[in-house]
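2 proteins. here.
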Amino acid sequence: MRRQDEGVTAIPPAAAQHLEDDMAHSDTTPSRRALIAGGVGLAAVAAQSAAPSAAAADLKTPPEGATALARDGRFAGKVALITGATSGIGRATAKAFALEGAKVMFCGRREALGAEVQAEIRAAGGEAVYRRADVRVEADVAALVAACVETFGGLDIAFNNAGIAGRAGDMGAEFDWAVHNDIMATNLEGVIRCTNHEIPAMKARGGGAIINTASVMGYVGSGPIMSYALSKAGVLSLTRSTALQVADDNIRVNAVSPGPIDTPMMGGGAAQASGARTPAGRAGQPEEIAHAVMYLADSAASYVTGEDLRVDGGVRA
């Protein structure tokens, strides 16, 4: 039926066509994992500020810095926990944090891919440990966070990224409650479970940063993927509410909302087709989301909390 992708369900060709149809009749375009989203990236934004005329043409091609992963060591001594990191955005972000000096604990449901990502990061000189965990399962989440603290001595940064996409059906017709409930249990309740266990670990550390993967689809309605859009709207609301709750504990909580991103989740040319309709004229790359996540986790964003950073190639503009 549906193939799981680093905690994300691949969109069947028929569903992808529905997404394309939905986009064609809307003034907004879909996002990552269901229309999946992408972004132009902080490097491209900086380039635009420096040279507006040149940047406009360059938007269609990711600048070298957008997809390159640095080794500046800005997260040395930090511990990062990433869910849904066996492919796509999660995988790129796990690698990015590790190359920047962080100790990374990451999860996903596919053990073979988890081992592959772990080996890849270690071969590149990073420090990372994979642990199988399903964010729909309370015991898995509790064990994941506990293992992170036990292995690395604490928790400073959490990227709650695991999610799935799917089509539950139309209201007033056949509605697949099993699909709907699975999407909500993963995309929204999974973030709640993770956050609930991450906060005590961060309090013990004196503070931290939580970043949740939302989507530009959280801002609009969508017939074909109503449940997905609903779950991401919930993540946006959860991000704001949690930020208010833990501000006094020196914990910042933000979200990142991708537009069309070139990941296995949106294969078969769907990402490119969606990206072509963005102002940037292309799909984003997973590393461009990773850069945005690292910005929100960094001290450079110390005055940013309760926010959503849309990395969507201009979709919402």
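next one coming up
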Amino acid sequence: MTDLRHHGDAELAPGLIDLAVNVRADAPPAWLRSLLHDALDRSSGYPDPRPARAAVATAHGRDQDEVLLTSGAAETFTLLARALSPRRALVVHPSFTEPEVALRSAGHPVERLLLRPEDGYRLDPAAVPDDADLVVLGNPTNPTSVLHPATAVASLLRPGRLVVVDEAFADTVPGEPGSLASRADLSGLLVVRSLTKTWGLAGLRVGYALGPPELVAALAAQQPHWPVSTPALAALVACTTPSARAEADAAAGVLGIWREVLLDALPAGVVVEGAPRSSFVLVRVPDGGVVRQELRRRGWAVRRGDTFPGLTGNHLRVAVRDPAVSRAFAAALTDVLLPVTASEEVP
């Protein structure tokens, strides 16, 4: 049975180089750390979400009542499961598993739409059943790193259906071409965002969602008082300024260059799935379980793929790091794959 609660941090251990978690390794930057320290000094009082809500609304051209601040983007999925009673919930896989976990934990049956490797794990809107009233997908999708066209995602919208788009990695793509975060005109759309990936704030738990005011209010009603801490609120204000968003976009451009270095360095015998556009790549290798354990023995942690519906034990998700790290990893993977490939060639 697929372990939907397994995540990349479970792969980590002291002494391992982390290619398993998709968080920028050199973040948060110094200016953000300084702001967080200042916010911690102000934490004797209760959090005031109003400046952060206003900042997020301004960044995406939304009204403030369309903004939900959350303790990490993943909280949104739990709130949805508590607030809604979908008749036919569909999760597009392979993808981040927390939406399905939250729905099932709340007692909702969940159907899966498995995207196909022969299609490059690209979304086919026609494959979504007409009567699905809740559709959840990621864009870019974790773990495939595929960016679905915004037009394809928007085409899923129809009366009586809520489409939830997990855009936790949207800012890892220069210009955010797949994002629908600013599309307040699209009825029945909820966009989920995170500061975790680009700004290195996984431990702070800070995210937000953008959607219709009545849905935002229903989700907020499921939250406890003060769900987002003062430092997290300070991060939301700081990271949604024009200068911070420009810095994030520049980092996404560098990330794209680094990703190409990793892809170019991967040895023969490694299949890159789809067309990666985010801060990680999905690869398929022969005898993946053995390869992952041997990489681990040599000091490298990568994310196993078989806990994502639709993938196998031969799939590994590898985070993009700086070129020196990527080349060193590719060299280690080459050494690991040599005996595996040789054993497959024996008659």
